[in-house]
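Dear H.,

Thanks for agreeing to be a second pair of eyes. The structure we're designing against is below in token form, covering all 208 positions.
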């Protein structure tokens, strides 16, 4: 289990552990990966789920993974240092395709806890599965109670990469997942440059 820092720790609650065991077919001793970074922080990144390698390392988006290396390139491009951003995943253990919605439901309370503790000014969401959890129109086929929190009201419709939204004074910015770039073999694909340029304007803006 990974904590945010030596001084500030965002702990998994008993409720969340119970949700994992009851809804994901995961035991309470499953190796989970919590967020890492300063608390509070101006910037926060939310990915989808850790890979098995990230699970072994115990960190979200570690540099030993392609996605972690690519994410570092993106952060450098937009002017964010890795040590000034809180990085986490929506789901805290590797994705299980047949139980994905169950995993999300189990982990949403922890994600909410992280957002509330970090108090970011800018949240960067990575990947379609994360984006749609922050829309007013998205409704899962099952487990609708997972979206009762008013936190999930950033976009009125499904956002594409480069979309931005604001909710209660916090800016949200959607990007493709770094694994997309890793698959095409280019850290910053040409199609992503306009999105990163736009993100950089928010990072450099006086409001942050």
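And this is the sequence the design step returned. I haven't edited it by hand at all.
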């Amino acid at each position: 289990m990974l904590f945010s820092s030596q001084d500030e720790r965002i702990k998994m609650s008993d409720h969340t552990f119970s949700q994992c065991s009851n809804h994901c077919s995961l035991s309470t001793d499953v190796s989970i990966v919590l967020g890492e970074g300063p608390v509070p922080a101006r910037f926060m990144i939310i990915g989808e789920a850790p890979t098995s390698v990230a699970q072994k390392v115990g960190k979200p988006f570690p540099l030993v993974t392609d996605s972690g290396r690519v994410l570092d390139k993106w952060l450098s491009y937009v002017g964010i240092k890795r040590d000034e951003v809180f990085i986490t995943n929506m789901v805290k253990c590797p994705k299980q395709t047949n139980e994905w919605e169950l995993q999300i439901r189990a982990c949403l309370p922890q994600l909410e806890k992280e957002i509330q503790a970090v108090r970011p000014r800018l949240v960067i969401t990575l990947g379609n599965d994360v984006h749609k959890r922050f829309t007013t129109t998205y409704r899962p086929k099952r487990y609708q109670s997972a979206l009762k929190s008013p936190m999930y009201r950033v976009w009125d419709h499904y956002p594409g990469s480069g979309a931005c939204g604001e909710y209660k004074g916090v800016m949200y910015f959607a990007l493709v997942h770094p694994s997309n770039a890793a698959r095409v073999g280019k850290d910053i694909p040409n199609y992503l440059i306009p999105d990163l340029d736009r993100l950089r304007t928010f990072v450099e803006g006086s409001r942050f």
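Two observations from my side: The longest strand covers residues 170-175. Helices lie at 14-23, 52-57, 66-78, 100-118, 128-131, 178-184, 193-204.

Warmly,
E.
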